[in-house]
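User: Structure tokens for both sequences below?

Assistant:
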Amino acid sequence: MQPRTKRQKDVLDFITRYIGNHGNGPSYQQIARHLGVTSKAGIVRHIKALENQDLVTRRRENGSFSLMLNSSNAIADTICQIEWLDLPNQNALPEYWELIALLVPRFLIGPKTPEDFCAFRVQNDSMIDKHICEDDVALIEKRSYARAGDIVVAVAENQQMFLHQYFRDGAKTELRPANPNYDSIVFPADKVEVQGIVRSILRPFKLFA
């Protein structure tokens, strides 16, 4: 569940960050100071509204209220699941984390829904000059078209998968890498199917070389 008003969302976001940084909830005065208001009465109303929406819980301790997040709602509102892109003629064995849906912060997809996206594991370093490395995870907005210069995931001739920049010239489509060690590849335009546009890159941290 999302807060019903922007002000309630501002209050909830501050409480979430404060608890993450300090391990306990902020006081009403601290919330008011953060929001730039002088009266705590308005903060009390927002807290009650969030409590009625089951987003926070107030507990009385030593004569005063403390705030707690209802974690199941907080997690559901900040995390979403993204399915992996189906790959043609996939030869490489998937990593264990590619066997389940990818969990990403919801802010990465903006106002769109998780169904508008898919995840793609980068297969080589052909886009290294665009700071996209082998084994990165690309968050792809599903689309069947692209503009010149867009970084896309595309299937060529129903079998080859590329993560390259897209350029169209009449009846031909160029898939251009960003690495001098790789050559651009040109296909008949009707032989290239754009799967989507790269919107974000996630980089798994490798503990061991």
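Moving on to the next sequence.
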Amino acid sequence: MTLTTDKDDIQSRWGFIDPSGVLDLIKPRFNISPSQNSPTVIVNQDNRELKMMRWGLIPFWAKEASIGYKMINAKAETVHEKPSFRKSFKDKRCLVLADGFYEWTKTDKKNKIPFRFVLKTKEPFAFAGLWDAWKTPEGEMLLTFTIITTNANELMEPIHDRMPVILHEKDEALWLDPEFKDANKLTALLKPFPSDKMEAYRVSTIVNSPKNDTPKCIEPVGSM
């Protein structure tokens, strides 16, 4: 995914407090990959708070951190009942901040073509995420998250049959509310984002490597 939006615009969009100084650590990111840190928003004591977390959820009960590599996504259809996610779904929901994401289509067994998906307004948005805190063997608390996925919309279908859940801005407060426990109403938010509010374009294969994190990653090289 990407988050290239200016810090002031991020602050203005989500209206969080930042006691840990996370905003100062944010720089434009053009290729955020699993196992890397990324900004999220949670509710803490009735305040929206900015947190830096690692992508790949490690449940609090996990014996090893390596489980996080298998937990970068959670399916909307089963997230409320899967042992790895149900506790976080109940009381540790978060917003994962972004302004674009990548998906690939395969041309053959060896090659795949990347595309970047954004809102037509080019504004930042939030994925529906879950988070947890895991105690490392050294005794430190590691914060990690996963992104919930759902069925692809019409724009996404030619590329992939799944897509990350982009929350409507009006639904973000409910998703964040740790006191809200109605699973049916929460899962009702986990729907494909409308195709007519999104657009996609082909990008360079340099984005295929997590080592590449430059503006070239988001430059168009073709259309859908």
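User: Anything stand out in the second?

Assistant: The mean pLDDT is 95.
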